[in-house]
Amino acid sequence: MKPKTVIAVVGPTAIGKTELAITIAKQLGTEIISADSRQFFKEMEIGTAVPSAEELQTVPHHFIQHKSIQDAYSVGDFERDADKKLQELFKNYDQVIMVGGSGLYVDAIIHGLDEFPEVDPKIRELLNKKLSEKGLESLQKELYKVDPKYHEMVDVHNPHRLIRALEIYHASGWPYSSFLNQKKKKKKFKSLYIGIQADREIIYDRINQRVDLMMESGLLDEAKKLYPFRNLNALQTVGYKELFSYFDGDFTLDFAISEIKKNTRRFAKRQLTWLRKNEEIIWVDSDIESNSVMDRINQKLVSNHE
């Protein structure tokens, strides 16, 4: 019997992951699981570059806009739901495609998550209150004090990640980093990573073009509708935070757009830093012919079967 395989298409934002994932899925006659944590939320369509209606009709996608920004949805929740969906899909397919720029979410499915202690919801409430009253810097300083190792690893501009690390510390008395890289449960499928790469100038140019296209497509109006909910975790993300500052009168619109581009470039850099640590990734250039990608995938699938 052929081994079941998850083929993960990864890379920085705006590099062309959706297009390549759809091409591979069509060639293999299978379906796609999205592991882009920003695209889970149905209210955030334009600013997260959700695949177009035409793309979604071409190949069945799962975990696209299936949650509300009001819902608490963690990487642990996603791992549980995606594992269940994979079990269903593997009844019909030998391979399933996974695509997304959220490295933590991709790795959670392929390798599993570390086990963490239960956290009293009151701890999270207190940390969210601290964020609201004292700002992001207060969380950054606390994490540096109690867990300098994780402070060096984490995106310190992401309040959700900071709160998660601090709530584990407050619940257990142990730093978040001490729970990482424990022995995880073994997954019942094989995996294959395809990473898309390009010169930095190309990535940055694509990002700038994408942001301009988002603005033309109505990102300003989308952000305006979400402005009353700006303190929710889901909205603490590039593309929305900058426009909220414009609505607050802190930025001009032109400056807000330039900040979206700058912060998206920084986000892409962090994505690549995460991915470069993964020695399993087969890297391909963004302009490679799809037939060449399929040749490399088929070679790897054959070797997995041997």
UniProtKB/TrEMBL annotation:
Catalyzes the transfer of a dimethylallyl group onto the adenine at position 37 in tRNAs that read codons beginning with uridine, leading to the formation of N6-(dimethylallyl)adenosine (i(6)A). The gene is miaA. This is tRNA dimethylallyltransferase. Belongs to the IPP transferase family. Its EC number is 2.5.1.75. It catalyses: adenosine(37) in tRNA + dimethylallyl diphosphate = N(6)-dimethylallyladenosine(37) in tRNA + diphosphate. Residues 36-39 are annotated as: Interaction with substrate tRNA. The keyword ATP-binding applies. ATP binds at residues 11-18. The keyword Membrane does not apply. Substrate binds at residues 13-18. NCBIfam families: miaA. SUPFAM superfamilies: P-loop containing nucleoside triphosphate hydrolases.
